[in-house]
Amino acid sequence: MVGTFRPRRLASAALLGALALGLAACGGEYPNSTFNHNTDFNADIDALWDKLLFWGTIVFIGVEVALVYTIFRFRRRPGAPTPKQVHGNTMLEITWTAIPAVILIFIAIPTVRTIFKTQAKAAPDALQVEVIGHQWWWEFKYPQLGITTANELYLPNGRTVNFQLKTVDVLHSFWIPQMGGKRDLISNRTNYLWFTPNKDLPSSAWNGFCAEFCGPSHANMKFRVYTVTPEEFEQWSAHQKQPAIFPAVAAAPAASAAAAVAPVPSGTGSTPVLLASLQGTAAPAADSAAPTPVQVPVWTFPREKLEKEFAYTIPTAKLPVSLSYDESLLAKGDAARGKELYSKSSCIGCHAIAGTPFNMAAVGPNLTHVGTRYTLAGGLYPNDAKHLAYWIKNAPAMKPGSLMPTLGKGLTDPKTKMVVNVGGLTDADIADIVAYLQALK
Hints:
Layout: H1 7-25, H2 40-73, H3 90-119, E1 127-134, E2 137-142, E3 147-150, E4 152-156, E5 161-167, E6 172-175, E7 182-185, E8 191-195, E9 204-210, E10 222-228, H4 230-240, H5 255-259, E11 271-275, E12 294-298, H6 303-309, H7 335-344, E13 375-376, E14 381-382, H8 385-393, H9 395-398, H10 427-438
Parallel strand pairs: 1-5, 4-10
Antiparallel strand pairs: 1-2, 2-3, 5-8, 6-7, 6-9, 9-10, 11-12, 13-14
Helix pairs in contact: 2-3, 7-10, 8-10
């Protein structure tokens, strides 16, 4: 049976496809697009993509034109004789083999050049950042600066950053779409990735993800990237180098002390913190021989700018329905009592807080300046008193597969299947610990 050609049906299908393509193109600016030039890596990859798309489009159009022409020119017609059988055409075969080979040369040269450029070693003066993937959170170390933090990455504009990518468990993949580059973290191997944020970028916030399935909370393994001016990065790193001081010491009223106080930058959301000693002891008297403590500004990316200007992945405020906590206790939390409870709990077996010698473990995120971070639980929840309390009480219920155990007294830990009694924390205990952790600016 010979089919009939139906132009109306073909036109309807083409119109539907054009409408779908048009709607997809009208989606506005996508916050995780890689098609931008925010870094040299982005620019190189985007340029390569444009070349591949150009030559691929030429090949596609050529093939489709030849195909459509052949279909219409040599279609079966009523009463037409049977087509003549031919052996082949040597010149035609050579031609359609040579043309793709030439096109592949135009594709291969820029591809190989880009591979060599992006795989080359970073500049010697690059900022070194060690990225360590955990199930399911990110650890960032700045070995040149002596800084360790988690889930929030600060980068200076205009300076090359060399990432050393490692994992302590399964495979992960480090991906910052707007900065370009996606590279795997492989067990027993260190991978490298480098790029330079454009020096003319305004201070900006970006999304970061794990792009390799790594377990039940793979989708919850997020992080934030802040590209800031060199001056802002210096302010941030100067504070991050300092140990956590608790409690914060009031500034000395003497004029001599004021001379040692670093100015707090206006409009940056900075908060002054006075660094007295590793143990948080009182500041020495103005007439003593001890040096006057220096006030170091706490600089973090301005919250008001973060909330108004950037389409980053917003942490969820929704809590699992199975959780319960007396939130009225949070207003009564005692930070000093919380520090004492924290130092006696199992928390010290997993976390580190610089300046507290009894607390230098490295299993979980470093909490030295946890009060300055905007997210917790691997970027899943906002870092506020409410969500921090629920997280401490029952982390596995907050995040599937969380390695942090259940700490709430009377609850059953999903891994051990045991009820937490000895060493468990009451809601009042948790409120005190929350007050302490939030005070660590």
